[in-house]
Predict the 3D structure of the following.
Amino acid sequence: MRTQVAIIGGGPSGLLLSQLLHRKGIDSVVLERQTRDYVLSRIRAGVLEWGMVELLREAGVGQRMDAEGIIHEGTLLAAQNRTIRINFRKLTGKAVMIYGQTEITHDLYDARDAMGGVVIHEAEGVTPHGLDSDAPHVTYVKDGTEHRIDCDFVAGCDGFHGVSRKSIPSSVLKEFERVYPFGWLGVLSETPPADDELIYAIHERGFALCSMRRADLSRHYVQVPLTDRVEDWSDDAFWAELKRRIPEHAAQRLVTGPSIEKSIAPLRSFVAEPMRWGRLFLVGDAAHIVPPTGAKGLNLAASDVHYLYNGLLAHYQDGTPEGLDDYSRKALLRVWKAERFSWSMTNMMHRFPDQGDFGQRMQESELDYLEHSTAAQTALAENYVGLPY
Ligand SMILES: Cc1cc2nc3c(=O)[nH]c(=O)nc-3n(C[C@H](O)[C@H](O)[C@H](O)COP(=O)(O)OP(=O)(O)OC[C@H]3O[C@@H](n4cnc5c(N)ncnc54)[C@H](O)[C@@H]3O)c2cc1C
């Protein structure tokens, strides 16, 4: 088989890139290790920056998002029954969209089907070859038979555990990492959200977040030690702990119900540089991970797709190499700023085992500063709604 761009990974970045390219007549094949049902069952992100909203519209998959997504013009930060509202619209003129990653993936699959896009599921042993040559190819095994795809470029959209990043020689690749000493226990439930907006709650027992996916679907989290297991947490224990950490008025209003998904995600900051090697481009979680506190993971994947898509477009339509040559530098500039924001939100809001009294006073002062400074609120809002592409 021959294609212009071989895309490894059929998560949001791989599907979005193939959809955008197809609409401009650029051919791609997506190779996904899992089944479609498995990919669609993953419950992950839900807060979209406006840049991502516009990119999804540009890809022709914005219709259901625009009909069913919920626009949020602010968010709430709470500590000890004191609540600070960060007014995104007033401070930045922008907002964010609440629309689940699962729904985006659904919409992208539907769009790929409608256009006859090629997505090969259950592709085993996907391996890129000749990435530092002018003629790369990718091999994989499907139903026991090995296949080969010749291509111009390979897009590594295969997440943190994928094969693409590992294909870059260790003498070239530099990795930066911070692992946090806690995780987030997340519960998805068919209950109304605790509030019209997200509540980020800082508490001496640990951080909590009241988030949502729809008006009848809520996503809540509590910070837990890394030693906790999902089986340790009954639904009742989860709701009781959440209520202790969020402001009283929200706890009183909170509607609880059975969990339909419950998982613990460890928190990590990670960046791999460079994001291009030869004819391979790393995109999304394949190149970087953020702790979910700033809601940046999926949004960063979208901005990478934006830069790569435009680079490929310039290459194929105008024969200009600058966009592709500059991909890694441009993407990393934005990645590091989102890493900084996610790291600082995580530091401000979580209880660290070794933070001591000094660390606690630092957190309290930061919150107090935020409460009384429009400049500090603007900085938070500007990063939360997303820095420009
Ligand atoms: C538990 C969890 C919760 C999260 N919560 C949030 C959140 O609240 N907010 C937020 O902004 N972000 C969140 N994220 C991050 C966000 O979901 C990711 O940033 C986003 O999914 C990145 O998209 P991606 O397409 O780059 O990678 P992925 O979604 O990881 O997709 C990669 C795809 O590649 C496939 N693949 C892997 N290896 C291979 C291979 N060798 N061959 C072929 N295919 C392969 C995988 O099966 C997968 O389908 C969360 C992530 C996790 C894990």
Summary: The pocket of flavin-adenine dinucleotide is lined by residues 8-14, 31-34, 39, 44-46, 101, 123, 126, 157-159, 161-163, 265, 284-285, 292, 295-299, 301 (CB under 6 Å). The chain has 13 helices and 20 strands. The longest strand covers residues 174-189. The mean pLDDT is 96.
